Structures are given as C-alpha cells and as structure tokens.
C-alpha cells in the first residue's frame, strides 16, 4: 500500500507538470503578461529573446533541485525535479512538436480573461503538487532553501518579494505598459487563493465550545446524531457563580445546522465557534 501511495504521488506530480505546460502554451505565452516567480522571468526572456521557457526552466530549476536534494529534503527535491523536467519537456513538445495553435487563447475583447483563467488553473496545479510533497520549482525551492538555513525568516515574504520584482520588471519588458504589471499581480493572487483552498481541502472544521448545564444529555445527542466525539470540561460562570460544563466538539461545516438545532433545544446554553484548519491525532469515529 505504501508503494502504491508513492507511485500515485509521483503520478500526480507528472500529471500536474503536463497541465502546467498546457496552461502556459494555451493561456500564458501568447498574451503578453508574465506569471509569478522565476518562470515569470523565463516568460519575459522568451518574449524578448525568443528563447523558450522550456529551456530556461531547465537551466533555472535543475541546479535548484540539486541544492534542495542536499540541503532540504530528498523526496521533496526528487518530486520538484520530476515536475521541472517534465514541465520543460511537455512545454517544448507543445511548442514545437504538437500543433496546438487552434486551442491557443489570444486576448481580444478582454485582456483579463487569460491571466484570470491561468491563475486559477495554476493554483489548482500548485495546491496538488504541494500536497504531494513537491514543488513547481523556482521560488518555492529558493524559499525552502532559505528557510532551511534561516527558519526565522518568513517564506511568504521571500516569495512575495520575488513576485514583486517580476511584476515590476514586466513594466519595462512589455513596452512600458502598466497593464502587464496588474495582470501579473492578479495571476499571483488567484494562484495563491486557489492553491490555499486546495491545501486546506476538506480539513476545514468548526470547533464548538458549548457552555451548558445539560452536558450529559447534550453530549449523548451530539454523539448519536452527528457521530462525533466530545470532551466535557468542568466550568464555572463567574458572574452567577453557577457550576457548568464546557463541551468541546469539532464538526464538519455541513453539520452546523444540526448542531445549532441541538444547542437551541437546551435552555441557558450558548456556544463559541472557531475555525479549526486541521486536526492531528488518532481519532476513531463514533459508531
């Protein structure tokens, strides 16, 4: 089973590399804007010098993956290398081997559609590669290497600084126009939002802290109807001096209406709700 999971994770990385190559070929390269990161620099070089992003990506990412192999994590480095090499090969194939001209979208009525769609697709790719313990290369590897040596540094700001430099440089590359800068920022924002949603995935839960006098009956009802365990903690209302209990329960988002109904059926009960991004530990489902 472990071997199958490893093969599956590498297969995901390979599939995402192919999808990113299609994304670049169809939505990015023909629409005069630079995506984020080091591939954005490669895109601007292709625009100015007609030197393919596929070749430039190899030149940039292979040395970075080698550094990550020795200084970060071997599995992470190998998957990043697989992604980078596969992306370059697929992109070169789509540029010079397979004719995809009829599928290429060129901005006509609205220049915003290509970066908007490309950013969403890239966010989907980025999220799935990161979940597989890999990276899309470029700034991710740079940030990982910096973080390994200086863990106190904020990775978000490292990547943000590089992306800002790419966005600023695109002003001079694309005929001193402000529009490519805005499109680069939009692309980066959408990539971050979509990938963040995928990385959170179904892990977003709601944590209820319920204050009540009816802890025994309410706990039983929650376990019977929602099939989630609960933890009961002794509590005391300092205003009234009343001995109470606090029920701690973590549920899925779609169960909030059912739990709210249970809470409302017990007089004098109230709850505090917070978001729990992820749960760790060995939990058994209540039967």
Report on the structure:
It is a single chain. The protein is elongated, with a radius of gyration of 25 Å. A four-stranded antiparallel β-sheet has the order 2-3-1-4, covered by helices on one side. With 287 residues, it is an alpha+beta fold. Helix 2 (37-49) runs parallel beside helix 7 and helix 6 runs antiparallel to helix 7 (155-173). Helix content is 61%, strand content 11%. It contains ten helices and four strands.
List the helices and strands and how they pair.
Layout: H1 2-28, H2 37-49, H3 53-71, H4 74-97, H5 113-131, H6 139-149, H7 155-173, H8 179-200, E1 205-212, H9 215-226, E2 231-237, E3 242-252, H10 256-264, E4 270-276
């Amino acid at each position: 089973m472990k071997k199958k999971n490893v093969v599956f994770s590498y297969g995901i990385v390979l599939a995402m590399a192919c999808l990113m190559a299609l994304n670049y070929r169809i939505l990015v390269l023909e629409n005069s804007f630079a995506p984020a990161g080091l591939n954005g620099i490669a895109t601007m070089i292709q625009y100015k010098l007609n030197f393919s992003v596929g070749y430039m990506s190899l030149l940039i990412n292979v040395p970075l993956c080698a550094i990550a192999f020795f200084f970060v994590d071997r599995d992470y480095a190998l998957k990043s290398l697989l992604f980078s090499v596969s992306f370059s090969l697929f992109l070169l194939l789509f540029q010079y081997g397979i004719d995809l001209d009829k599928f290429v979208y060129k901005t006509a009525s609205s220049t915003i559609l290509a970066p908007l769609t490309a950013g969403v697709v890239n966010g989907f790719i980025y999220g799935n590669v990161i979940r597989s313990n890999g990276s899309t290369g470029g700034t991710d590897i740079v940030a990982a290497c910096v973080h390994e040596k200086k863990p106190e540094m904020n990775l978000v700001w490292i990547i943000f600084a590089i992306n800002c430099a790419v966005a600023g440089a695109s002003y001079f590359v694309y005929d001193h126009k402000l529009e490519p800068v805005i499109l680069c920022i939009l692309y980066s924002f959408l990539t971050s939002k979509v990938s963040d949603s995928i990385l959170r995935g179904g892990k977003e839960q709601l944590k209820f802290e319920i204050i009540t006098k009816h802890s025994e009956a309410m706990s039983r009802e929650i376990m019977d109807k929602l099939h989630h365990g609960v933890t009961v903690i002794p509590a005391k209302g300092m205003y009234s001096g009343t001995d109470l209990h606090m029920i701690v329960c973590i549920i899925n988002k779609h169960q909030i209406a059912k739990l709210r109904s249970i809470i409302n059926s017990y007089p004098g009960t109230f709850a505090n709700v917070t978001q729990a991004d992820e749960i760790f530990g060995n939990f058994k489902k209540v039967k």
